[in-house]
């Protein structure tokens, strides 16, 4: 590709997967013009107007041209936090925002051209979205929810009750119907694309988090109605059976996790058109990397949930509930730029989806989470943004290729090749982590007359 010239567009010649579940076109061409896809079709049918030298020809034998990945669940403001304390208490908000734009480039360099941010600390995600959209920094196109609305029974109210709710928490405590309405209106004023609710607790935080619901059905309905009245998507963190059922029944658009969904929950999802984003890579990664399901009591709790999800969610999918892939990137087991296509592999290996169905769940199927520009992303189609991946090989045969950016020849966002230079390594500052200043408990060793570190 010639350098230092600005072509009218590109003429990419290879095999094309368009983001639907249609089989690949084997000898196809995608023409880009400015930030948009101008034409897609079989190469022999390329109109004369696109054969001009103004379009830089890139011949891509053995390569697949497909939509850029869409990650349905990220937390760009979380900074790879290891705990609620790190997230809620440490790192000044200004530093979080700068770190988030630095991390956003890594997400884009993994082939993710659009990402849904499912809860932010402060209003960092809105600013990251806008800073990228305004052209200051490189990163995916974001759609963002604000801080998730929680009750005392939801995720995020995780500190002792005598403490004030920390302002850095990725949630906000709402104690009445009035506070629910006020919070939704405030977040809409502050520029969210979606409202997110913490509908259940979380097995990451509490081992008894597989039952119950953080809000009543009437409260879910109030949240859904007010969010929709203000033109926003309505989303919920719901791991438990009751939270999934009530949020789906109330008309929420997106259910995150849904691991313990039952037949009633599936029926409400179908009736109200809810989408499920399982977001299993976090639990699966922790279990796999720390010695398996029996290695720790926490892993056993995680495995209970993973088993339930692998039983219930394929059933929901076969019944007709759409699945979208999400990574949960932003927590420390899911560092930015590494795991954004992991759930596609889980869908194929454990849910029985075909690779094409999994790719759909990570491209066009995920576009529905983006009210902002959902009709312009997720598909290789004339008129949509030229957000494209060029993959060496056939991800429709081996979906794990999408987890290996070294197999990508190009990533295009808005018709321009993405700079692939990795960010320079950085030093971690002391204020980003727990302030752990003593390293344990020392027992007096009477024989040796010295202290001995015991835990
Ligand atoms: Zn999350």
Structural description of this entry:
The chain is α/β, with parallel strands linked by helices and 455 residues long. The protein has a domain at 69-340: Metal-dependent hydrolases (TIM Barrel), CATH 3.20.20. Helix content is 28%, strand content 22%. The protein has helices at residues 84-89, 93-109, 124-133, 177-189, 217-229, 241-250, 263-272, 281-289, 297-319, 342-351, 355-361; strands spanning 9-16, 25-33, 36-42, 55-67, 69-74, 112-117, 141-144, 148-150, 171-173, 194-198, 233-238, 254-257, 275-277, 388-392, 408-413, 416-417, 442-445, 450-453. The strands form 5 sheets. The protein has a 7-stranded mixed β-sheet with strand order 3-2-1-4-14-15-16, with no helix packed on it. Strand 1 and strand 2 form a beta hairpin. Helix 2 (93-109) crosses helix 3 and helix 8 runs antiparallel to helix 9. The mean pLDDT is 94. It binds zinc ion. Zinc ion is lined by residues 73, 75, 118, 328.
